[in-house]
Amino acid sequence: MNLEELKILFEKNDYKFTKQREIIFEALNDSHHRHITPEELYTVVHKKNSSIGIATVYRTLSIFENLGIVKRQEFEDQVNRYELIRENDHHDHLICTSCGKISEVKIFPEEKYKKLVEDKYNFEMQDYSLKIYGLCHDCRNKEINNKEN
To answer: Beta strands of the chain (E only): which ranges?
Structure first.
């Protein structure tokens, strides 16, 4: 979604599009698929515009979520993280239980999950989120090295 599309979406849904919300959107867009916490986002946007408070960040994220612009994810640490929803970019998450690293992966296309769920369970899937917990490559190596020593 680009800035013009965002402005149109805001107008259609009777939300005011402010410079602060634009800065927040741009910061999310610049996060390059990072799963960013509201506090991390606040740190970035506050540097660009010191009048943006943490409450504005939370309110804007809530609006963005209601409009389908961002997706909220909660991982093992129970912290809400946000990422922009990008067209045709559904992905799953590998979460390291040791260091907390989150990696995005595409295990199967969304259509494959949808067909499996519909065929096997007679259930119409509208969305899904797959989170796989385990040890990342670096943490596995550390664990192996610690056992050898």
So the answer is: 70-74, 80-84, 92-96, 102-105, 131-134
